[in-house]
Design a protein that fits this description.
The protein is an alpha+beta fold. It is 33% helix and 26% strand. The chain has three domains: 83 residues, Rossmann fold (3-Layer(aba) Sandwich); 55 residues, ATP-grasp fold, A domain (Dna Ligase, domain 1, 2-Layer Sandwich), CATH 3.30.1490; 193 residues, D-amino Acid Aminotransferase, Chain A, domain 1, CATH 3.30.470.20. Strands 9, 10, 11, 12, 13, 14, 15, 16 and 17 form a nine-stranded antiparallel beta sheet that branches. Strands 5-8-6-7 form a four-stranded antiparallel beta sheet, sandwiched between helices. A two-stranded parallel ribbon has the order 1-2. The protein is globular.
């Protein structure tokens, strides 16, 4: 999706791919298959690249510091990326900035967890995503798997929230910042299922607060590129920061079709220190629904069925093999009537997942 944005701007992308058949390798001609944890591989891939950027947070920070010392512009830099890599460090830094977060503590034993109190959410500080490395616990017995993982752990309060929101911001090295409309993110089994832009019935004061939180985090942490700030809207009307992602994010995929400038284009503009594009929505409502692997195995064949049923919905298939629950694509619908837009997006995704719609 970043390559799609790069084509119109005349930007050349070189990709370090973990395997020859991954999604990005299918569309980026200039790619090398290699290990992102190997410093020599990284040196070779970035040799003549003016800017280095990322589609995940897991590149070892010590390697990025070495690349920076050797004259390569890493955006975001390792000093910022640390807070997307390690949830414990993120919590400590945001708390130091006065950014509202759930009550939390690092834990190393069942006694630590008992002292923290139940119920709680236990997370690995590194590596978890889409519900992996996260446990809701109401006793130390519930946390046995977490402690057996051998990972460093963080305990957080189990937040009583109304819904999850996401505030997306783009920032350049020279300090230009633009925020996207705050969206509602709906989850299923720990995985983002759908995103509504903008978040329905969001209090204007909370909308402004969410944007201000995202801008402050991006500025204080010196983030370059796209920053996604995932938030809880609590039942008593507060905002608490849940997670950070310093890259184009699933909750911003709606922007490809629904915003004046997509998150992928603005990420490229930001890391190259080009003027940022407008982030306004093109229509009153956009809904993105993820296509999860299910009963339909031949997505390309099913494409014609979906287009016949919903010709105005935008389809994005990722070229991935179908596995149960795996994100293999997304659809986006847009328009002026939210109920209609939701229905069209959901019907389209259901046709790709189950082969039938559920009206």
């Amino acid at each position: 999706m970043m390559q799609q944005a790069a084509i119109g701007l005349g930007i050349r992308i070189r990709l370090l791919a973990e395997a020859p058949d991954v999604s990005a390798a299918q569309v980026v001609p200039d790619h090398v298959v290699g290990d992102y944890t190997d410093l020599d591989t990284l040196r070779a891939i970035v040799a003549d690249a003016p800017v280095v950027t990322f589609d995940h947070e897991h590149v070892p920070p010590e390697h990025l510091r070495t690349l920076e010392a050797e004259g390569h512009a890493c955006r975001p830099g390792p000093h910022a990326l640390l807070y997307a890599q390690d949830k414990g460090d993120m919590r400590e830094r945001l708390s130091g900035l006065g950014v509202p977060c759930p009550r939390n503590a690092r834990i190393a034993s069942a006694d630590d967890l008992t002292d923290f109190g139940f119920p709680a959410v236990v997370k690995t500080t590194r590596g978890g995503y889409d519900g992996k490395g996260v446990w809701v616990v109401r006793s130390t017995v519930d946390a046995a798997e977490a402690f057996a993982s051998g990972s460093q752990l963080l305990a957080e309060e189990l937040v009583d929230f109304r819904r999850e929101l996401s505030a997306l911001v783009a920032r350049t090295p020279s300090g230009e910042v633009r925020t996207y409309p705050v969206v509602e993110s709906r989850q299923a089994d720990g995985v983002c299922a759908e995103v509504i832009a903008p978040a329905p019935d969001l209090d204007p004061a909370l909308d402004a607060e969410a944007r201000a939180i995202a801008e402050r985090i991006a500025t204080e942490l010196d983030v370059t590129g796209i920053l996604a700030v995932e938030l809880f809207e609590t039942t008593d009307g507060r905002l608490l920061v849940n997670e950070l992602a310093m890259r184009p994010h699933n909750t911003g995929h709606w922007s490809i079709d629904g915003a004046v400038t997509s998150q992928f284009e603005n990420h490229l503009r930001a890391v190259l220190d080009l003027p940022l594009g407008a982030t306004d929505a093109r229509t009153p409502w956009s809904v993105m629904v993820n296509i999860l692997g299910g009963a339909v195995e031949d997505l390309e064949a099913q494409r014609a069925v979906v287009l016949a049923a919903e010709p105005d919905v935008k389809i994005h298939l990722y070229g991935k093999s179908v596995k149960a629950g795996r994100k293999v694509g997304h659809v986006t619908a847009y328009g002026s009537d939210l109920d209609d837009v939701l229905a069209r997006a959901r019907r389209s995704a259901a046709l790709f997942t189950t082969g039938v719609t559920h009206d």
